[in-house]
Design goal:
With 178 residues, this protein is of the alpha/beta class. The protein contains four helices and ten strands. The strands form two sheets. Strands 1, 2, 3, 4, 5, 6 and 7 form a seven-stranded mixed beta sheet that branches. A three-stranded antiparallel beta sheet has the order 8-9-10, with no helix packed on it. A hairpin with a 2-residue loop joins β9 and β10. The longest helix has 16 residues. The N and C termini lie far apart (44 Å).
Amino acid sequence: MELPALTTKREIDQVIRGTAGKVVVLRFGKSDDATCMMLDDVLLRCVRPLQRMACLYAVDVDAVPVYTRYFDITLHPATIFFFDGRHIKCDYGTHDHTKFIGAFREKQDFIDLVEVVYRGASRGKPMLFFAVCEVLSLTSHYYIANDSGAEANYAMISFIFPSHNRGLMLSLDLENML
């Protein structure tokens, strides 16, 4: 099973203008690209849970160069959202609010984003905010000698928050929590 493909500018325009009350999700990329294939797998698993609020489509960047240039798509995959004929902009913590660049690792991450877009766009919000937070690592136990020389049980959780094309790394040390 594959995402429905839109191959012409006319098809894309008809889907954007003709879909009312649902988020239109356009995945721009190349069907033979490994990252696009990973994203397509995640999107396919989301079709059924999102069927009441979103329509998902794949667009080959080489087939529709007009939109590729218009949205300045240089990195693949790029995911763009529309609602009731309007392009929805979302602040992901990067400099580009017009599209999401990259793939989602988990189905729930994409579902959460579409829900944010759907709720915000249906309320007429011009700009949406979606905090992308990725848990990088969890070290369950390690021991560090504190100032008094005694060992303390620590856990460290590392997060990365993308901020203006530079990741802001935040590490939390949780003493004696395990």
